[in-house]
Amino acid sequence: MPEQLPRPDDQPRWLTPAEQETWQQFGLMLHRLPTALDAQLQQDAHLSYVEYYVLAGLSDQPGHRMRMSDLAVLANSEQSRLSHMISRLERRGLVRREPDPTNGRYTHAILTEAGHAHLAEAAPGHVARVRDLLFDVLEPAELHSLRTAAAKISERIDRREQQAGAHKKTRP
């Protein structure tokens, strides 16, 4: 039987003091880590964290191209917001757009040679900052626990989104 979503009329399960402290530290890290990475990327490469993430995502794809709709999912961004960002990156010559050759209803974002070169130049500083802020402060067992916890949380989010989507479809 699938897990049930919590119902609003259920009694709240308040956080214990240890859980509250964990939640506060986790929330602080979720806020501060992207801000710190963004600051480094802005200073060194004139890219936001999300712009870097989009360029890196494109660089990992065959032909350095991806449908805009799929790129929006990767970047956890609304389509219109991603479109504005891609426009800014296009003006800088880092990406270009063209119709999907297999289905003209879609548009591809394509990493240009200049974009790939810019990404390659930005990557060492970004990796150094990631290593400094995350990997150098944690022991191997802690990294394993973090990886395992992140995967479990992501899987739970995916399940909840699927359940919520299925629930919307069955509502009158």
Q: In percent terms, what proportion of residues is strand?
A: 5-15%
Output the helix-strand order: HHEHHEEHH
Rounded Rg: 20 Å
CATH superfamily of the largest domain: Winged helix-like DNA-binding domain superfamily/Winged helix DNA-binding domain
**Total domain modules:** 2
Which structural class matches the secondary elements?
A: mainly alpha
How many β strands by DSSP?
3
Number of helices: 6
**If strands are numbered along the chain, what order do they take across the biggest sheet?**
1-3-2
Low-confidence stretches: none
Shape: globular
Ends apart, CA distance between termini: 23 Å
Q: Overall pLDDT, averaged? A: 92
CATH architecture of the largest domain: Orthogonal Bundle
The CATH topology of the largest domain turns out to be Arc Repressor Mutant, subunit A
Helix content: 55-70%
Please give the largest β-sheet: 3 strands, antiparallel
CATH class of the largest domain: Mainly Alpha
How is this structure best described in words?
A hairpin with a 7-residue loop joins strand 2 (95-99) and strand 3 (107-111). Helix 1 (17-45) packs antiparallel against helix 5 and helix 2 packs across helix 5. This protein folds into two domains: 41-137, Arc Repressor Mutant, subunit A; 139-172. It has 172 residues and is mainly α. The protein has six helices and three strands; from the N terminus they run ααβααββαα.
